[in-house]
Design a protein that fits this description.
single chain, GTP Cyclohydrolase I, Chain A, domain 1, five-stranded mixed β-sheet, two-stranded antiparallel sheet, 7 strands, elongated, binds guanosine-5'-triphosphate, binds zinc ion
């Protein structure tokens, strides 16, 4: 499958978002000065800025892999929120991340931080899945990486086709997590278990 290019973007212009949110309220037929809405543009600008420009902390702590342990490490049940780039509505993901360490192991929390870097953006579920796998492969120096994500998209549950029960599952499997059927099956069984 062709990869989906990762877009770049500038930091949020908070003042402009505040101004435009006021305009949006007017366009929606509201009185932006009424009690209850007067502070809404400021709040909306603050949450966009916090969500998109958040500092996700230190990403790259690795440890030298000194044991004979040669099996995978798998984190499952990681919950993150992202935003659908088509409708600007949230989607919630439950994610599993697995890799087979080579010379180095990564600090476990760093896998979650890297996932949040990609989730806190205007996104596609497929792109998050692929980008997290690619970053992990680079950071850990191994191709044996698998990422599974199960998403509920509000653009499909609260509007549009209004199918609240639908979950979208995506995966990106690299190296032996795709080519070794026994390893692939063991990882997939665990990776999808938290989503059931
Ligand atoms: N592949 C993919 N599609 C997504 C994702 N999030 C939302 N979409 C889809 O983006 C599509 C946009 O379709 P359009 O026809 O342009 O927009 P729309 O008329 O609002 O579509 P409906 O949702 O069918 O009402 C929809 O089919 C959404 O379900 C995602 O993460 N990945
Ligand atoms: Zn959408």
């Amino acid at each position: 499958m062709a990869s989906i290019p990762t877009p770049t973007r500038r930091p949020v212009d908070t003042g402009r978002v505040e101004h435009l949110t006021r305009e949006l309220l007017v366009a929606l037929g509201e009185d932006p000065d009424r009690e209850g809405l007067a502070d809404t543009p400021r709040r909306v600008a603050a949450w966009w800025t916090d969500f998109l420009d958040r500092d996700h902390g230190t990403l790259g702590t690795t440890f030298t892999h000194s044991t004979t342990h040669d099996d995978f490490v798998l984190l499952r049940g990681i919950e993150v929120w992202s935003l659908c780039e088509h409708h600007l509505l949230p989607f919630r993901l439950t994610v599993s991340i697995a890799y087979v360490p080579q010379a180095q192991v990564l600090g476990l929390s760093k896998l979650v931080r890297q996932l949040r870097v990609h989730a806190h953006a205007l996104q596609l579920q497929e792109r998050i899945t692929a980008d997290v796998a690619g970053d992990l492969a680079k950071a850990a120096g191994t191709d044996d990486v698998a990422v599974y994500a199960e998403g509920e998209h509000l653009c499909m549950s609260m509007r549009g086709v209004e199918t609240g029960s639908v979950r979208t599952v995506t995966s990106c499997r690299l190296g032996r997590t795709a080519s070794d059927p026994e390893l692939a099956a063991r990882i997939e069984r665990l990776a999808l278990a938290s989503a059931r």
